[in-house]
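Revision sheet: structure tokens.
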Amino acid sequence: MARETLTLWTQTALKGPFYIARKVWRTLWVPWLIITEAFETFIWTPKRVANTSTSEDFSQTVHADRKSAVRQGLDHWWAPNPVSTDILLQRSLAADILRPLIIEIYRADILRRTNPTASRTPLLGAGICNIQCGPGFLSELLVEAGADVTGIDTTNDLIMVARAHFQKCKDKTARPTYLTMSAEELVQQHGLRYDVVVCSQPLNQSIDWRASMRNAGRLVRDGGCIVFLCPNRTAASFLWNIVMLGQLLEYFSTHMFRLYQFLRPRDVAEQAEKNGMDVVSVRGFYPWCWTRRGLKWIFSNYTGFWYAIVLKKPSVDVYNGVKKRVV
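Predicted:
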């Protein structure tokens, strides 16, 4: 025991100076970061690229033995204490923001029920499509709440991990349907069928966010809702998300969040109007504290850091075919 304690102290003592030097270097890099972000946002905007860092990290571990690949994928994505902060971000957003928001809008805007519920399955009967579902963080939470979930992702390795984890850890009586395809391909095969369409990936990380919104609108039924998350393009968002959480605290990967990719709520609302969608609400949220599973997020009236925008597809009057807004 004494030897283990001495070894731990030695490792901490050696790590201390390097850790401090790293933080000092990253702090000195902040002015250059501000200059480059301002240049790319206001002068020359680079071409958008998809964020596939976590998928690539897992893909590098894939072998010819698919069972071994799935086991490594489960260890990578569903580890109790994952190394990747990107995984912690996806988990915390799914649990703290997306799940309660979907329950709220399903009951209030679709079922038209305003009274709170203590049921363990508040989404019973809801048909939900989870775009970019990844390894199934949000899909499993929605199934546990009673929803009929279809999770889609273009990375087959992630779909395999999602299926394997649910089969291994969850009740077999109800399970999500996982498909390896894009939203556009799902539109061609199934068309309008879902009560709620939600994208697990923040909207700013899409290569073509306008196309993502159009495809989501084609998947939701008349009177159904769509949920997107996105960091706002504000000075406060830049200082908090990129400088503080990304550069100094190293919670976000620097390639994941770039100011020129951030979207303002009015830009998303304008695109929604072009697609024939109504904006139901714009809810702000921000990280409140640190827990074992990552940051703890809470809702707020301030949308300057992050926001969740809820869109609704108008119902159609069966008598004259004129769309009407549902409030």
